[in-house]
């Protein structure tokens, strides 16, 4: 009982330190543009993606129990932490912008390691890892790939491939623009088909995970201070408010807010995709 309470406290502290650093710190995420002959960028930003993916898993798994949790913690989160720490010498200058945030970053890593250690001790003590059948292994791989994709931060493609060609601006219903429209229509169908036969807990975990990943991606572009000081950065656009509202709806089951999001935000987001503001720095 005491161990469970301690693990839950570590979970809340980990989430709090990550949230504070995310909302207030302004790291040099976008300082690296393209490889520029430096292959290290690929592994560097891959390790950051692994860490963010692992953070969400470690945080949410304490609240939502599924049969894959322990396997993901053992075979994905643990190796991801080791890879991430291996690149910490290069990550710290990018991930932190001052002494206070450096200390928060170190505290976050310590909390992450402690919480993962508690879970691994529980897993090996209770011998919860059993041999998986072929179908379960395939599902485990699919979960990892999907989680990595939804957690790919907006600065990662820039750091690896560069800023991209101006020809590919999402306007005039060109090929790239049409692909985005088709993808936004097909994605909800794929998500529905993938989770429709799963348990309620698995459905909630999958949806909360994806929405939090989108929120983290958006928050990596703007700090909380910028959201209040620059009106152009306010998340009051219909397509942007959904990223803050949906996690609240799914976590706390706020039905009236969900209906607002369902009928208003979805329409606003789709209109933003159809008619993007391509004069802005970041396309909406």
Label the structural class. Answer: mainly alpha
Helix content: over 70%
Number of helices: 12
> Helix and strand string, N-terminal first?
HHHHHHHHHHHH
Biggest β-sheet: count, sense, barrel?
Answer: none
The number of distinct β-strands equals 0
The pLDDT mean sits at: 77
Envelope shape: globular
In percent, how much strand structure appears in the residues? under 5%
C-alpha-based Rg, rounded: 20 Å
- N-to-C span: 47 Å
The poorly predicted ranges are 280-284
Q: Can you walk through the features of this model?
A:
With 284 residues, the protein is mostly helical. The chain has 12 helices and no strands. The N and C termini lie far apart (47 Å).
Which keywords apply here?
284 residues, mainly alpha, 12 helices, globular, disordered C terminus
Brief summary of the model shown:
This protein is mostly helical and 284 residues long. It is built from twelve helices and no strands. It is globular, with a radius of gyration of 20 Å.
Q: How would you summarize the topology of this molecule?
A:
Elements: H1 2-24, H2 40-60, H3 69-86, H4 88-95, H5 99-126, H6 134-150, H7 155-161, H8 175-195, H9 200-219, H10 224-229, H11 238-252, H12 255-274
């Amino acid at each position: 009982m005491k161990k469970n309470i301690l693990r839950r406290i570590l979970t809340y502290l980990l989430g709090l330190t990550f949230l504070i650093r995310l909302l207030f710190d302004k790291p040099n995420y976008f300082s690296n543009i393209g490889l520029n002959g430096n292959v290290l960028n690929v592994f560097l930003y891959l390790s950051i993606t692994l860490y963010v993916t692992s953070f969400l898993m470690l945080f949410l798994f304490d609240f939502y129990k599924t049969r894959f949790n322990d396997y993901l913690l053992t075979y994905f989160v643990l190796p991801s932490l080791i890879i991430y720490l291996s690149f910490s010498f290069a990550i710290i200058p990018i991930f932190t912008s001052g002494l206070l945030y450096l200390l928060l970053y170190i505290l976050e890593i310590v909390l992450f390691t402690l919480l993962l250690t508690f879970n691994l001790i529980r897993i090996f003590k209770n011998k919860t890892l059993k041999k998986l059948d072929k179908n379960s292994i395939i599902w485990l791989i699919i979960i990892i790939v999907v989680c990595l994709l939804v957690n790919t931060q907006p600065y990662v493609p820039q750091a690896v491939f560069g800023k991209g060609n101006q020809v590919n601006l999402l306007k005039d219903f060109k090929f790239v623009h049409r692909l985005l429209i088709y993808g936004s229509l097909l994605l909800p169908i794929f998500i529905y088909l993938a989770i429709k036969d799963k348990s309620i807990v698995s459905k909630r975990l999958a949806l909360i995970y994806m929405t939090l990943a989108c929120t983290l991606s958006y928050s990596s572009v703007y700090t909380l201070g910028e959201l209040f000081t620059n009106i152009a950065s306010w998340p009051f656009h219909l397509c942007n408010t959904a990223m803050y509202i949906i996690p609240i709806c799914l976590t706390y089951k706020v039905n009236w807010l969900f209906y607002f999001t369902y009928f208003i935000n979805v329409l606003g987001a789709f209109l933003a995709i159809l008619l993007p503001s391509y004069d802005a720095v970041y396309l909406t």
